[in-house]
Amino acid sequence: MRVVPVPQLFDNYAYLVIDEQSSEAGVVDVSDAGPVAEAAEREGVTLVAVMSTHHHPDHVGGNMDLLAMQPDGAMRVFGYAGDAGRIPGITDPLDDGQDFELCRPGGSSGLRGKAIFIPAHTRGHIAYWFADEAAVFTGDTLFAAGCGRLFEGDAAQMKASLEKLASLPDETRVYFGHEYTQSNLAFALTLEPGNKQLVKKARDVESLRAQNLPTVPSTIAEEKLTNPFLRSDSEELRASVRALSGESAVDDVAVFAATRRLKDNF
């Protein structure tokens, strides 16, 4: 599997997910069909599927335009079954834990993936995990050093969703929906300035962004070391959250919720 980030809008990413044996590709989260079609042509691949993580227009707004560029019935559209009414063009609804193959409609072989239900940013958010390829596409739930806003869920739900993702193998590459990494790390450093891994990652990301290079992918291992939303058990973080928020957050969910409120106002 080869993954090609495709910049979308201001700071979004779509991703071509390429099966190098068949030269077929799926695409994760299409907000703008034109750059996706151009990237597919440039990479010499045939688009066979769209994988939508959630219903927000900056992740599905290009679905119908991309479908219109293909022959009728030539592409699948995956999305969460419970949110099918909000995923434009959906053909293949997926439930939590459901396996799927990334191949053309009627095809019988392709990259094998699994849907992971991770609600809170929206009530119908899923990730696409390719275990054999050690890659997961997390949309707006898990970012590098961050997580999505709680639009349709609460802190406990988001924490549980992030813990699902954190339970994947450490080497799993994380492909996220937005280029928020530099800002996320700046916030994380206000909570854990003594975290050496965090300081190093911030320095590395600063160098990448100075060259206008993307910060994807991260890995699950990196996120467990540097993402404040996976570090509610850190004593340094907990002390900083209490000091900055003025809240006497004690349990992990309360710390998480206070951290999210601080980030909302950062």
How would you portray this structure in words?
The protein has about 270 residues and is α/β, with parallel strands linked by helices. It has helices spanning about 35-45, 55-60, 65-70, 155-165, 180-190, 195-210, 220-225, 235-245, 250-265, and strands at about 1-10, 10-20, 25-30, 45-50, 75-80, 90-95, 100, 110-115, 125-130, 135-140, 140-145, 145, 175, 220. It has two domains: about 1-105, 4-Layer Sandwich (Metallo-beta-lactamase, Chain A), CATH 3.60.15; about 125-265, Ribonuclease Z/Hydroxyacylglutathione hydrolase-like (Metallo-beta-lactamase, Chain A), CATH 3.60.15.10. Strand 8 (about 110-115) and strand 9 form a beta hairpin. Helix 5 (about 180-190) runs antiparallel to helix 6. The longest helix has 15 residues, at about 195-210.
Strands in their spatial order, largest beta sheet: 1-2-3-4-5-6
- Quaternary structure annotation: single chain
How many domains? The number is 2
Percentage of residues in DSSP E strands: 15-25%
Largest beta-sheet details: 6 strands, mixed
Structural class: alpha/beta
Shape: globular
Mean pLDDT: 96
Fill in the keyword field for this structure.
266 residues, alpha/beta, Metallo-beta-lactamase, Chain A, 6-stranded mixed β-sheet, 9 helices
